[in-house]
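Thread: quick sanity check before group meeting

JM: Hey all, I'm pulling together slides for Thursday and realized we never actually wrote out the predicted structure for the chain we discussed last week. Dropping the sequence here so it's in one place. If anyone has concerns about the input, flag it before I start.
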Amino acid sequence: MDIATLIGLAGSLGLIVVTIFMGGNAAGFIDVPSVVVVLGGTFAVTFVMFPMGAVIGAIKVGMKTLLFKSNDPLEIVRLITSLADTARKESLIALEKVNIEDAFLKKGVMLVVDGASESLVRSVMEIELEFMKQRHRQGQAVFKGMGNMAPAFGMIGTLIGLVNMLSNLDDPASIGPAMAVALLTTFYGAVLANCIFLPMSTKLEERSTEDALFMQIMVEGVSSLQRGDHPSVVKEKLQAFLSPALREDSA
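JM (edit): ok, ran it. Output follows.
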């Protein structure tokens, strides 16, 4: 589970809620029509900007982000080094019997075992890597689009509220409450955009960068396996993808 994401979401929303209660008028921040305008409008326009499948897929990925557990790059380096050791002591065919959980790495190793050329193996893996980036970019764009639209619909809701308020100026006592309700849509739009949608877009971008790094390590590792590099050479080569601190830890 991604504790950082949970802490960030709970912390930002929690601070807002606590501040509202400290003001002593929490009920005044609840307005169902304002919520409908902001949420409904944001999702409606998002379906205009992106295909339905892309929007639904992005939301699912966003939910999974809360349960995401990062891969350990050291474990990947150790696994590929172990595969190189097995291939050197036995043969590349022996790798067929090794249990490899990661589907991307397993596909590359199986291509090597089946005798595919190095250029073909690298091409297949790099194509899958590129399409992974493309899928992730679409998910990021969906959340970024919602982050841009939520404040816009907040402003639209505020304008609707102001029009309704100005049409009832004959009752001065109602102007204050009406103004407060009109401003709530702007508040809802700002909270949704800056506490949920835009941070999730940035989080997905970070996840994509991390996944791409792991896959690049695997691509280079599989190429080293196919060339028959010594395990120590494979380890040193793959450690070049890691930060100096991680390289020292894995030494």
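AS: nice. The CA atoms of residues 40 and 203 lie 24 Å apart. DSSP finds nine helices and no strands in the chain.
JM: adding both to the slides.
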